[in-house]
Specification:
Length: 162
Amino acid sequence: DYIIMTQINNSINGVNIEMILDDEEIFKVKTLNALNKNDELKNFVMIKSTHKFCSVDFTIINTYNLLSVYVEHKKKKITALNYNTFFIGFQKLNMIEAYYGQQKLFLVFDCDDDLYFCEYDNKFLKREKKIICGSKVIEINKSECGMGFDDFNKKLIETLTL
C-alpha cells in the first residue's frame, strides 16, 4: 500500500500529532466526512475490514435505518483518462459473489486523476476472462462506471436512504 504522512491540526498540550494514513484510511475518512456532512444526525458509519484477505474493504451503514452497502476499494496509480478499462481479479469476484452476492456492493477504482465506481453485478462472472501476470481477470469498461467522488457520494446516499 502507498502511505502518506499527514499532519493533524489538532494538538495535545500544544504538540502537533502526526499520523500515517494509508490509501484506504484516507478514502474512509473522506467518504465518511462527505456522508455525514449533510446529515445533521451523523447517521453514517464506515467499518474497515481487519482481515487481510477479506473480499471487500468496507461496510457503510446508515444507523438510522440499518441499510448498508459494501465497498471494494482499489487504489490505482494511473491516470485513468489514458485507459478504457479497469481489470479486477476473477477470484476476487468469485469470493464477492460467494459472500456478498445478494448485497449492494460498489467496486471503486481510485485513480490519480479521479474516482471511478460501478455497482457489482454477478454478470461480471460470465464475462470473458483474460490472463494478466498469471491470474484470471475480467475487464470493466470505463463507460460502465460513474465518475467523481461527489457522484459516488450521491450514489451512496441514494442507496443508504429510504
